[in-house]
Automatic annotation (TrEMBL):
Cross-referenced PANTHER family: MICROSOMAL PROSTAGLANDIN E SYNTHASE-2, PROSTAGLANDIN E SYNTHASE 2
Keyword Transmembrane included in the entry's annotation: yes
Highest taxon, organism lineage: Eukaryota
Protein name: Prostaglandin E synthase 2
Lineage: Eukaryota, Viridiplantae, Streptophyta, Embryophyta, Tracheophyta
UniProt source species: Vigna radiata var. radiata (Mung bean)
Keywords assigned: Fatty acid biosynthesis, Fatty acid metabolism, Isomerase, Lipid biosynthesis, Lipid metabolism, Membrane, Prostaglandin biosynthesis, Prostaglandin metabolism, Transmembrane, Transmembrane helix
Membrane topology: Single-pass membrane protein
PROSITE patterns named in the record: GLUTAREDOXIN_1, GLUTAREDOXIN_2, GST_NTER
Gene Ontology CC entries for this record: endomembrane system; mitochondrion
Length: 354
């Protein structure tokens, strides 16, 4: 049952990242070899339904990843770790399939084989890589041998993520007891815990981190948690300077780093407040579409297939939605929210029965 719960929650977490967008048009996803179309709607309740297309394989994507074709990537992580999510966002964007081993933060038995005792750890065909930024540097060089890692603006904002942005997260997600419990409810349901460990971690961890967050707040000279979070979000939007992404028309490594560390909090109270009270929502929605569905393997699948093979090639949504009539219906009526909830329920049922 624990495995089923984790699978269902993962499915929901992935789908919950489908965010509202600005126009009622359908576009092909840049890097989705499974071929998906995303319906964009003015209705905020319609969060990026994806549909199958037979012609969406990107030649540019094929060229980018041709030189990097490992047999096995394994990411050892904590689900809620911002640095782990940086690596996952990179792999998702470049559509590189990877397995995930969720490390138990209490005993860390999953990484006892390694002398390095922090996460993330990524193994590429058995080769160990550590430190999120170093991992990404090595991977991008294997994908694009001539990638300039010293581009001034990109380097500046990647360092800003590691040295500033991550430090405003803990004081926010553990700001008070209800938010600390909300955060640990997410951490313990997504993480690798036994039932008893989950109970201890949720309540004991929430209490401990509530006090730790106060020390972190003092250490990093944060007087108002939300003001610091909103300020960081606005600082990032200012850096975009009207561009779709910091990288221009496509995300660069700084975009992926910011998105990666913010993605775990997006549906916590702190993340909801951030989107509501700052200008970052539009960029986040654009990034969500650009990154797309996760390329992590569904380890609970009978054939260990890509998670998208379980969620992206079938749907209970009416077949007219990819067409103009369906997009008009979603844009001009209130049916979108109900369709979205039906899609979620259908996908959860498929996972339970698989």
């Amino acid at each position: 049952m624990r495995g089923l719960n984790r699978t269902v929650l993962l499915s929901r977490a992935l789908r919950s990242n489908f965010t509202a967008v600005s126009s009622a048009t359908a576009t092909l996803h840049r890097a989705a070899p499974y071929g998906t179309i995303t319906v964009r709607s003015n209705d905020p309740s319609v969060n990026g339904f994806r549909y199958v297309s037979s012609s969406s394989t990107s030649l540019a994507y094929d060229a980018q990843t041709k030189a990097f074709n490992p047999k096995e990537l394994v990411l050892f992580q904590y689900q809620a770790c911002p640095f782990c999510n940086k690596v996952a966002a990179f792999l998702d964007y470049y559509d590189i399939p990877f397995k995930v081993v969720e490390v138990n933060p209490i005993n860390k038995k999953e990484i006892k084989w390694s002398d390095y005792k922090k996460v993330p750890i990524l193994t590429v065909d058995g080769e160990q890589m550590v430190d999120s930024s170093d991992i990404i540097d090595k991977l991008i060089k294997r994908i694009h041998a001539d990638y300039d890692l010293n581009a001034e603006e990109e380097k500046k904002w990647r360092e800003w993520v590691d040295n500033h942005l991550v430090h405003v997260l803990s004081p926010n997600i553990y700001r008070n007891v209800p938010e600390a419990l909300e955060s640990f409810d997410y951490i313990t349901t997504q993480g690798n815990f036994s039932f008893s460990e989950r109970l201890v971690a949720k309540y004991g961890g929430a209490a401990a981190m509530y006090f730790v967050s106060k020390k972190l707040k003092k250490k990093h000279n944060i007087t108002d948690e939300r003001a610091a979070l909103y300020g960081a979000a606005e600082q990032w939007v200012d850096a975009l300077n009207g561009r779709k992404f910091l990288g221009g028309l496509d995300p660069n490594l700084a975009d992926l780093a910011v998105f990666g560390v913010l993605r775990p909090i997006r549906h916590l109270q702190s993340g909801r407040d951030m989107v509501e009270h700052t200008r970052i929502g539009k960029w986040f929605s654009e990034m969500d579409r650009a990154v797309g569905q996760s390329s992590r393997f569904s380890l609970g699948s009978k054939h260990h297939g890509d998670l998208r093979s379980n969620t992206g090639t079938e749907t209970c949504i009416p077949p007219i939605l990819p067409f103009q009539s369906g997009r008009d219906m979603v844009e001009q009526t209130r049916i979108g929210k109900w369709l979205y909830e039906m899609d979620r329920a259908y996908e959860d049922m498929k996972l339970l029965l698989s």
